[in-house]
């Protein structure tokens, strides 16, 4: 069991989890900050790369000893924005502190298509990277321009092909409901994607996050959202087209070929804990969530002064952990076994009435101890999950 039941169960008590088996490391550097991006990202500040690596080393030293993991995910930003010497130093560093266990493991690195070269892929493979996640977003030149992406459709295709030949396990992200986009444009993106040598596909509806350029432009009415009817059709196509090509729709936004689900993300959805390092990174260890400062410069300054990079921290109660594990677990199309969340009587006492209400309106379905989203619930999953939380 992930949640320990000794001492006796108490919903108000601090949550306790087994040591994590996953780790995430955030790389903040990018060539350009896209208008929709709300991540901890620095564009045009490659002068800070060495200082970042020094700070990251200082943060990882706080672990005292290496932590063996089953999944390691390097995200950003753009990890492949590093030049070869910096990437080598980075991979050595994270490989020392987060060594992969034996057996079935997963080492993922995010990348932008226009950063992909044969030499960089060879370097990643040399350090054990066995999965690459490309921020393609679209194969349509006009849509890429709207999204402020710096690669061309041909560069995306070349990066996928080269990554498949070298790494073998390739995932890409696609975005739908871009301003001005039609369902036909989105269907073409999906058809292009499933014709490529992919093992995994993530499809996300564009969100306008407060503080981004897109948010500001939306307020000024210089861009507009796609009408709801078209967004719904795009979501339907995001399910149907990959499915017809042999992909399994296993999570609200994620599709995988058989045996190629993202094991690292499964740790998030199951709420079993993970280590994290880098600016803005959020860890979840022994029931305690800690979030590093989002500002890369502040993150660097704090660590190089011998201070903690943590900006926020919270110890979850058993009740909070149950709610989060149910809510995020429901993102998986197979649903969740409530007995894996906690004692069934405790889970039902806490959420049983909420479950029943969502079942009665057709958003959830339950068979015995297993509960999951219905087809209707899938299309309004965010609202369903917020009810649980």
UniProtKB/TrEMBL annotation:
<keyword id="KW-0004">4Fe-4S</keyword>
<dbReference type="InterPro" id="IPR034505">
    <property type="entry name" value="Coproporphyrinogen-III_oxidase"/>
</dbReference>
<dbReference type="InterPro" id="IPR010723">
    <property type="entry name" value="HemN_C"/>
</dbReference>
<dbReference type="GO" id="GO:0046872">
    <property type="term" value="F:metal ion binding"/>
</dbReference>
<feature type="domain" description="Radical SAM core">
    <location>
        <begin position="15"/>
        <end position="248"/>
    </location>
</feature>
<keyword id="KW-0411">Iron-sulfur</keyword>
<dbReference type="GO" id="GO:0004109">
    <property type="term" value="F:coproporphyrinogen oxidase activity"/>
</dbReference>
<dbReference type="InterPro" id="IPR007197">
    <property type="entry name" value="rSAM"/>
</dbReference>
<dbReference type="InterPro" id="IPR058240">
    <property type="entry name" value="rSAM_sf"/>
</dbReference>
<dbReference type="InterPro" id="IPR004559">
    <property type="entry name" value="HemW-like"/>
</dbReference>
<dbReference type="GO" id="GO:0006779">
    <property type="term" value="P:porphyrin-containing compound biosynthetic process"/>
</dbReference>
<keyword id="KW-0349">Heme</keyword>
<keyword id="KW-0143">Chaperone</keyword>
<dbReference type="Pfam" id="PF04055">
    <property type="entry name" value="Radical_SAM"/>
</dbReference>
<dbReference type="InterPro" id="IPR023404">
    <property type="entry name" value="rSAM_horseshoe"/>
</dbReference>
<dbReference type="Pfam" id="PF06969">
    <property type="entry name" value="HemN_C"/>
</dbReference>
<keyword id="KW-0408">Iron</keyword>
<keyword id="KW-0560">Oxidoreductase</keyword>
<dbReference type="GO" id="GO:0005737">
    <property type="term" value="C:cytoplasm"/>
</dbReference>
<dbReference type="InterPro" id="IPR006638">
    <property type="entry name" value="Elp3/MiaA/NifB-like_rSAM"/>
</dbReference>
<comment type="similarity">
    <text>Belongs to the anaerobic coproporphyrinogen-III oxidase family. HemW subfamily.</text>
</comment>
<comment type="function">
    <text>Probably acts as a heme chaperone, transferring heme to an unknown acceptor. Binds one molecule of heme per monomer, possibly covalently. Binds 1 [4Fe-4S] cluster. The cluster is coordinated with 3 cysteines and an exchangeable S-adenosyl-L-methionine.</text>
</comment>
<keyword id="KW-0963">Cytoplasm</keyword>
<protein>
    <recommendedName>
        <fullName>Heme chaperone HemW</fullName>
    </recommendedName>
</protein>
<dbReference type="GO" id="GO:0051539">
    <property type="term" value="F:4 iron, 4 sulfur cluster binding"/>
</dbReference>
<keyword id="KW-0479">Metal-binding</keyword>
<keyword id="KW-0949">S-adenosyl-L-methionine</keyword>
